[in-house]
């Protein structure tokens, strides 16, 4: 049992929207402890011993999927990973049928990634176990925002009052939506930097300031979060070319110089080097936190899995 | 021997065609209304012992049966969604006594043979309880390119021509179809959509869609289409029905064109008067419709238009979709909502809220569409077909999806409290629905 008094009140983690400051801080605090555990030689905890974690990935992913797998195994859970290529969806079974079938096998934790916004929410209504959103369409990716917050907190300290820029394809980014929600709760000052075609309508009402000029947007920033630009956006539909995008929005030393001299650089990966970020910045020894984000990812996912498992009803007590 | 009559007395007669809203009665003989007015009381019984059916309406509303200009069934080709028979059961229960079926079927209703098929299916009186009128496809296979046989379909009984859910992108094709149809005063319904702006959209474009991470249909897609189609109607002299507008600005454009003398009318889906974009909430696929639920200010602008008589037709936009096409992530789910059983109640809620009068609410579902199609029903006047409904405008009820009579039950009204229910429905003087 955890030794703090606040009880995380949610059955699922579907998004940052709906979480309050205490919820987020509890997850970050527990994440901190798992960072320590993960740095030891023996990384095993047994809080999920005997429980089954199913990773259901309808959209391919290397880092998030393996991060959840490692997190589950380190906590002692039995981990099963299903990707869409091997599932029966190809045979015409509906998404909901797949969820009901999996549910009948009585997993305790279900991690889902899907290419459609809202799909994870839909599935969470059909199953009895705890559901964790590992990314749904262009909606939310809550564990990414939590790991980003943990990374910043461990490097800089309190997130309240920091100026944080989020740059690139905001329109199609679930990472940006989750980060804006989370950083707002923690009291950061958010700058969104993007070309107009990749800025969501109404973004100015998200509790952020919107910029099209990257240099202005980076002024005074403590952290610069770059987003991945999908290849299919660069074909003349949203942007004239990758080259033009890099010229105006690619992070290089010159543009980064407009942020604070101590500013850190982050990226959720996978990176398009030379499109949204220059290699010398991505690999910078002191300013790039990109590999550290991956490390924090495992720890925060362990924290999320443990917290939700604690809240789950006993298998025998479930309906259906 | 005189023919039997049905005498309904002690009713609140509400007839938008004449502006009548007064206590009185009505006499039906040989499927027609033969007398109507305040002078018809229970004393008529003396004149007709044992022969006539006397109905005491108990001060409930007696109005013309509703005429719905936009209904989709699954017949032919998608009978698992809905048949003409199941749609007619839902219609009768909802007080809809006449409806127009869209040509978006499989095969598309784009030829004389298919119009004739629908006419024959619809006249199978044992099965199909209400009057069904086919709309002819404006282009062959609704491909938006080749004009279909408009004149022949009209002779076979098509009441209007439309490209259904797919707006015609090619202005030249639409212009020629309008020119051609104007020769016989054919009514062309055109969807108010610019598809290149709404492809893949799930809901209204804006801040709420952006937060949900959903692709939105922007308002300008409707505005551009309405302006273009009005200009083409003006240039060709065709009669245009702008199909299901959802924005205040589109309504204003239609009103301006009417003032200029353009032969243009517009319809609004009942759901656009009831819901706004926030009702999509947590990705509710039953709220995925096209045009989408818009902002509250657009909803209010449409209600204003209804109150001042600017909306010619309110339609159910009935579009049955089974669970396998709706129980999906919202981006993958089918568009459409059933609406035949909630059309009247959606309007009556506006009356209950004092937004519009009962006469103003009923006009676009009775005489409004009747005049657009040149139909004799839709009015309480002597000589008109006895297509009638008796309803209590104040009965509260809870809409429960599973209780709907449609074969598909994809209703956004599921779980909503509504006001006003149909007690009895007559088509040509015959009772086709009675609520116990």
How do the strands and helices of this protein lay out in sequence?
The complex is a heterodimer of chains A (320) and B (436).
Chain A: H1 21-38, E1 52-57, H2 63-74, E2 78-83, H3 95-104, E3 109-114, H4 119-124, E4 130-136, H5 142-155, E5 163-167, H6 174-185, E6 189-193, E7 209-211, H7 214-218, E8 223-226, H8 242-249, H9 253-256, E9 264-266, H10 279-282, H11 290-311
Parallel strand pairs in A: 1-2, 1-3, 3-4, 5-6, 5-8, 6-7, 8-9
Helix pairs in contact in A: 1-5, 1-11, 2-11, 5-6, 5-11
Chain B: E1 5-15, E2 20-29, E3 32-37, E4 53-56, E5 61-64, E6 66-71, H1 84-94, E7 96-101, H2 112-122, E8 131-137, H3 150-156, E9 160-162, H4 171-182, E10 187-191, H5 195-198, E11 203-204, H6 207-212, E12 216-217, H7 219-236, E13 239-243, H8 248-260, E14 264-269, H9 296-307, E15 313-315, H10 323-326, H11 343-352, H12 358-362, H13 367-373, E16 388-398, E17 417-427, E18 430-434
Parallel strand pairs in B: 1-4, 1-5, 6-7, 7-8, 8-9, 9-10, 10-13, 11-12, 13-14, 14-15
Antiparallel strand pairs in B: 1-2, 2-3, 5-16, 16-17, 17-18
